[in-house]
Amino acid sequence: MNNLVFGKYIPIDSFMHRLDPRAKLIGLFLMIAAVFVPKSWWVFLVIGLMLALALLMAKIGIKMIVQSFKPMVMMMIFLMVINALTVKTGDVLFTVGPVQVYSDAVFNTLFVIVRLLLMISITTLLTATTNPLDLTLGIEWILKPLEVIHFPTHEVAMMVSIALRFIPTIIEETIRIMNAQKSRGVDFENGRLAEKISAILSLIVPLFSVAFERAYELADAMEARGYVPGAKRSRYHVLKFRFVDYLFILICVGALSFSILSRFYL
Amino acid sequence: MSLIELKNVSYSYNDSTKAVDDVSFSVRKGDYVTIIGHNGSGKSTLAKLIAGLLPVKEGSITVDSLEVNEENIPQIRKRLGIVFQNPDNQFIGSTVRDDIAFGLENKQVPSDEMEAIVEEYAKKVGLTEYLNYEPQNLSGGQKQRVAIAGILAMSPDIIIFDEATSMLDPKGKKEIKQLMYDLAGGDDITIISITHDIEEVLQSDDCVVLSKGKLFMHDVPEKVFANAEKLRQIDLDVPFIENVRETFGKYKIKLKANDLKGMVEELCRSGSKR
To answer: What angle do CA B89, B94, B99 make, to 5 degrees?
Structure first.
């Protein structure tokens, strides 16, 4: 859990860090759409290469990206099992006990897993290269049109930013509580289902209590520093679209177009 | 002249117990006031009432003649900052730089003026080289200095330290206490420090003692600690120096000095006379 990096900002200076957060957010939506649309491995290869280049320009090591996959391992295993049990087309590749595993099941699982991994990598790239406060500004800007229907854009953006900022803190807290409960004899790894549920409860209840306490204290600290939800504020970081930001969006539009066209021509 | 005035202030979180019970006292401009008391004596509640983080339900609190109420709170908050106990729960910015700027953004300081202010106050608390660090990667003392820089950047007249050193290691404690003493040295800033650190109380101009939500004593620290027996009755500690004075007093040796060195000199003088 110590190595959980999803949502973590890496404060270094790089080309990707310097991009406008709005451009990166738009890019994120475009690239996620581009990952969702295709049915061809070629598109994944192209998006994968683009991602590798972006990671290189962001000075983010592959280790961090691999670490961001860890929380999804269980989900991937679950996907494999479900596909093995339900997809019965193609050739029989091998047999596990009474279950025959078909080629389409393996192909579908791999396709979904690669899609998932690309999505996680793209999101990790965004959060690792965008300061949470800048992300708030970006989200606020994107949600701006919703203000017409009195949607609290700034508050939502601030909530997202604080949630991201608190991910590492809550992880640390979880580890602390887990260790405290282990020292009292709670076993998180072994035992029957009922015992495991009881162990998890001994973790979740204090975690929620601590999280609420932190939330109250943070709210007090924010109020004490003059924060009023909905009130006008000036900006330390003034966002400015530059040529490279437009170029970045254009490249992402290109990736999405390629992905859409691949459905018809590849 | 009183800058902060509390008159018959009471507050209860639920109807059964009063966290603060009929407390009245005043704080002069430029003073360094410490508030002491055992856990649950109402110290933090009182701080939150003064800062307008809790509504004043009974009695009244005024800050520079402005009553602390919903209408005046925005104006009062521009002049008053509060540093909390746990530095980890005070950060909003992802870097030291952003965190110091948070209050400035709320105060609507123009964007082009912020950089200089951020750098000025980072320098004041000795964190210039850490401006681009994530606050959670700093030591306890450094984290609390970031919180203080964030408050100082808003140019407050009053700073409340709510047990700001209690979660720090000895080095961090020393750093923050020194910073507090430096701030208290000038006449511009009024400091209210809620503390369990008896040695810190000795450095203050005025000391407020709370017990079970009530005002137990309010005087200069020397006079407060002269009532050692009364303080012990409410489970409060007295400074080492007062324990020494009291012990020698039992042997009819009166020591007047207010520091250990002075006491030793007094003892040497009285020994040589005999």
So the answer is: 70
Residue A251 · residue A26 · CB < 8 Å: no
Eight-class DSSP state of B13? S
- Of A77-91, B121-135, B140-154, the one with minimum mean pLDDT is A77-91
Amino acid letter, B129: E
Residues in chain B: 274
Residue B14 has pLDDT above 70, yes or no: yes
Sorting pLDDT into bands at 50, 70 and 90, what band is B24?
Answer: very high
- 3-state secondary structure at position A265: helix
Q: Calculate the alpha carbon distances from A142 to A147, B48, B148, B274 in Å.
A: 11, 36, 34, 86
**B81–A218: do the CB atoms touch at under 8 Å?**
no
ipTM of the complex: 0.83
Contact B104 A227 (CB under 8 A): no
Q: Contact B44/B194 with Cβ under 8 angstroms?
A: yes
From CA A59, how far away is CA A40, in angstroms rounded?
29
Would you state the structure tokens that stand for residue A194, as one six-digit string? 């009922």
* Three-state secondary-structure class, residue B23: strand
Dihedral, B255, B257, B259, B260 alpha carbons, nearest 10: -40
Q: Is A225 on the interface with B (CB under 8 A)?
A: yes
* pTM of the shown model: 0.75
Edge-to-edge strands, sheet with B58-63: B20-28, B2-11, B58-63, B66-67
Chain B residues in contact with A11 by the CB 8 A cut-off are 94-95, 132-134
Chain B residue numbers with beta carbons less than 8 Å from the beta carbon of A226 are 74, 77-78, 103, 106-107, 154
Q: Which domains does chain B have, with CATH numbers?
A: 2-233 (3.40.50.300), 239-274 (no CATH)
CB contact under 8 A, A11 and B132: yes
- Residue extents of the structural domains in chain A: 1-130+238-266, 132-236
For A236, which of B51, B86, B105 is closest by C-beta distance? Answer: B105
**Torsion angle, alpha carbons of B130, B131, B137, B142, to 10:** 60
Give the phi and the psi of residue A142 in degrees, each rounded to 5: -70, -35
pLDDT in tens, B73-109: 988 988 899 999 888 888 888 789 999 999 999 999 9
Among chain B, residues having any CB pair with chain A shorter than 8 Å are 48, 51, 53, 74, 77-78, 80-82, 84, 86, 88-95, 97-98, 101-111, 114, 118, 132-134, 136, 147, 150-151, 154
Identify whether the C-beta of residue A128 lies closer than 8 Å to the C-beta of residue A10: yes
% of chain A exceeding 90 in pLDDT: 32
Q: What is the pLDDT of residue A7?
A: 65
pLDDT tens sequence across B36-65: 999 889 999 999 999 999 999 899 999 999
- Tokens of residue B245, six digits: 């004075």
Residue pairs spanning A and B at CB distance below 8 A = 97
- The pair of structure tokens assigned to A179 is 């260790």
Spatial separation of the C-alpha atoms in residues B124 and B111, rounded to whole Å? 21
